[in-house]
Amino acid sequence: MRPETVLYALNEFHARAMVMGRHLNTVLSQLEETSKLSAEIESLQRELAEANNRRQEVSLQLGSVKNERSQLLAKRNVLKTHCRDFEKKDEDSFPIGIGVGGSSSSMKLHFP
Predict the structure, then answer these.
(1) Rounded-to-integer distance, Cα 78 and Cα 82, Å
(2) CB-based contacts of 109: which residues, under 8 Å, 6+ apart?
(3) How far apart are CA 32 and CA 40, in angstroms?
(4) Which residues 6+ apart lie within 8 Å of 93 measured at CB?
(5) Could you tell me the CA-to-CA distances from 42 to 36, 38, 75, 99 in Å, in that order?
(6) What's the mean per-residue pLDDT of the chain?
(7) Is 55 helix (H, G, I), strand (E, B) or coil?
(8) How far apart are CA 37 and CA 43, in angstroms?
(9) What pTM does this model have?
(10) Mean pLDDT (whole number) for 34-47
(11) How many degrees, rounded to 5, is the angle at CA 90 between CA 88 and CA 91?
């Protein structure tokens, strides 16, 4: 084999090795970014899971508060009805103008 042929073959091998090296460098650098992105995705998934858990907790608390509000409104309506009944009985038991305080209208309770 002639020395020029060996040099030519070595140059070709070197050139291809350089191209492959650059390609591998590009691929490996992308893998680093990919692993960083994977880590970031995992972190975001954990944060999303935590946010969903918190949302469920708040939703349960909201349901509890709505239930309590509904019960309190029902009690308020019962109390309003009792007060109206007592006022009606008071008006029926005293003639107009002869009650405690001069008039039965001054004794009425007002609810919003």
Answers:
(1) 6
(2) 83, 87
(3) 12
(4) none
(5) 10, 6, 50, 76
(6) 83
(7) helix
(8) 10
(9) 0.46
(10) 88
(11) 65
